Amino acid sequence: MANKGNKKRRQFSLEEKMKVVEAVDSGKRKGDVAKEFGITPSTLSTFLKDRVKFEEKVREATVGPQRKRMRNALYDDIDKAVFAWFQEIHAKNILVTGSVIRKKALNLANMLGYNNFQASVGWLNRFRDRHGIALKAVCREDSDRLMNGLGIDKVNEWHAGEIIKLIADYSPDDIFNADETGVFFQLLPQHTLAAKGDHCRGGKKAKQRLTALFCCNASGTEKMRPLIVGRSANPRCLKNVHSLPCDYRANQWAWMTQDLFNEWLIQVDTRMKQAERRILLLIDNCSAHNMLPRLERIQVGYLPSKCTAVLQPLNLGIIHTMKVLYRSHLLKQILLKLNSNEDQGKVDIKQAIDMIAAAWWSVKQSTVVKCWQKAGIIPMELTDSNTEAAAIEPDIAIEKLWHSVAIATCVPNEINFQDFVTADDDLIISQELMDTEVIQGMVASENTDEAGSEDEGEASLPQQPKITITEAISSAQKLRWFLSTCVGVPDAIFGQLNGIDEYLMRRVTQTLVDSKITDFLQTK
Fold first, then answer.
1. Rounded Cα distance, 119 and 82, in Å
2. Alpha carbons 108 and 354: distance in angstroms, whole number
3. What per-residue confidence (pLDDT) applies to 117?
4. 33-37, 101-105, 184-188, 385-389: lowest mean pLDDT where?
5. Looking at residues 17-33, what average pLDDT do you find?
6. Across the strands, what pairs with 280?
7. Residue 217: is its pLDDT beyond 80?
C-alpha cells in the first residue's frame, strides 16, 4: 500500500494530450485508447473535457507543444513583450543566446516600470519552456543558412538540395506559394512620381493603402480566394454588403499580422481536410509568418532568406501581372470619366476590392506556370510561340490606353506605365517591431491590431442605395438586350450572363416560395 501511495504521478505534454484526443477522433473506442496510452478512463475524460483549452494554446503558439502545464508567467506583460521581440529576431534568422534574451528582458522590464525584476537563469529557463524555445536552434531552418546573398552558386545549391526534398511527395497541383503585396488603391497616374519608393510605414498614406495576400499552385489550375487587409473595419461603402470576391480584414496599419495570417492558414487547412488533400505551401519568413499554428494538412516550406526575388514564383511575375491588370482597370475608369466630363472621384475600398479580385482571377494559367518554371521549382517546358505573341498584344493596347490618359491628366513625360504599375512595390506589408512598439502593444492592449474608424481614409462617395432583386433582374435583362445589339460578342459572355440570370431567378423563386409557405402557415 505504501508503494502504491508513493507512485509518481505521470505528467503529459500538450503534444501527448493532442495525440490521445486525435486517437478518439479517429473512431477508436475510448477504452482501447486508454489502454494504448496507459491512462485511466477518468484521465481520458479529463483530456477530452479540456481539449478546447490546450488546442487553442497550441494553435496560437503561446506555449510550446512539449509543455506539460499551462501556468502563466509571474510577470506576464514582461513575458509577452520579450516573446514579441524574440519573434521578430527569430524571423530575421539572427542568432540569439540566453544572455541576450536576459539583457533584453531587463531593458523591457525597466520600460514597463518593473525595477525589481531579475532576469535570472531560472526565469530564462521557464521562459524557454513556456514558449517551446530551443536556443540551440533559433534559426528557422538549415535552408535559411544556404543563402546570405544572391550568389548563383547558392541558388543552384538550394535547387539541387532542399527544394527537391520538399516537393518529392507532391504533384504540381498540390504545391502552393503564398505572398503579400501592398497596393495604393487610390493612386492616380499624375501622382505616380510622389508614390514611387514610398514604404508607407504610417501617417496619412496608411489610409490609402491595402495589403493583399495571394496564393496559387504550381500547375496554375488553382488560385485561392485573395485576403485583403485594409485600415477601416467598417467602411461606409461595405454597408449592406454581404458577399465579396475576397476575404476582407482590417487593422490600424492595413498590414499583414501573425494573427491574420494564422487565421487564413487555419481556414485553408480546414478546406484541405474537408477535401482530403495534403499540400505543400512555400512562403517567405517575414515577421507575419514566423509563428505558425498547428496544421494537419499543410506542410510549410520556407524559401531561403534574401532570395525571394529570384525564388518566389509570385514575385517573379504573377503579382506584377495582377497589378498590370488592376492599373488597367483604373485607367479605363479614368478614361470613361474624362470622356463624360466627370470629375476623377477617388476609388473606394469596395471598388478596389472588386478590381483587385477581378485582376487576380484574370491572371492566366500560362503566366502562373512560367513563373513557377522561372523559379526553378517545376521543370521548364517548351512554350507555344503563338501563346507568346498573343501575350504581347494586350500590352500594346494598355500602352495606348496609358498614353491617352497620361496626356489628358498631364502626367510628366518621364513617367511611364510600368512606373505606375510598380509605384507601390516597396510598401511595407508586415510590422517590424521596435522596443517602444512592443511596450505600446503591452500597455495599449493590442492597439496595433485595432482597425481605423469606419470613415477614416475612405473616399467621400455617396452611399449606394439598396438594390432589390426585381431591379437586379431588370438590369440583367437590359444588359442582355445591349449585348444583342453589339457585333461579335463571344459566346462565353452570354454564358456568363446566363449564370447571372440563373442565380437571380433562383433567389427570387426561393423568396416567393418561402413567402407563400409563411402565408399558408399563418392562415392555418
1. 11
2. 44
3. 85
4. 385-389
5. 82
6. 175, 299
7. yes
What is the C-alpha separation between 196 and 199, in angstroms, rounded?
9
If one counts every other C-beta atom within 10 angstroms of the C-beta of residue 456, the result is 13
Distance from C-alpha of 259 to C-alpha of 177, rounded to nearest angstrom = 19
Q: 82 exposed, middle or buried (CB, 10 Å; 0-12, 13-18, 19+)?
A: buried
* 96 vs 108: CA distance, rounded Å: 16
Tell the burial category of 111 from Cβ atoms under 10 Å away from its Cβ (0-12, 13-18, 19+): middle
pLDDT in tens, 428-478: 887 665 555 566 655 544 444 445 544 544 544 556 677 888 888 888 888
| Rounded-to-integer distance, Cα 102 and Cα 92, Å | 19
Q: How far is CA 314 from CA 213, 311, 368, in A?
A: 10, 9, 8
**Beta bridge mates, 229:** 211, 249
Reading the block at residue 59, the C-alpha cell is 494553435
- The grid cell for 138 is 533559433
**Residues with Cβ < 8 Å from 458, sequence gap 6 or more?**
207, 232, 235, 236, 237, 348, 349
DSSP H helices, 281-384, are: 308-311, 318-339, 349-362, 365-374
**Rounded CA gap, 147 and 142, in Å?**
10
Q: Which residues pair with 217 in a beta bridge?
A: 176
Pick from 253, 257, 317, 320: nearest CA to 287 = 257
Residue 473 one-letter amino acid = I
C-alpha angle 457-462-467 in degrees, rounded to nearest 5 = 120
pTM: 0.64
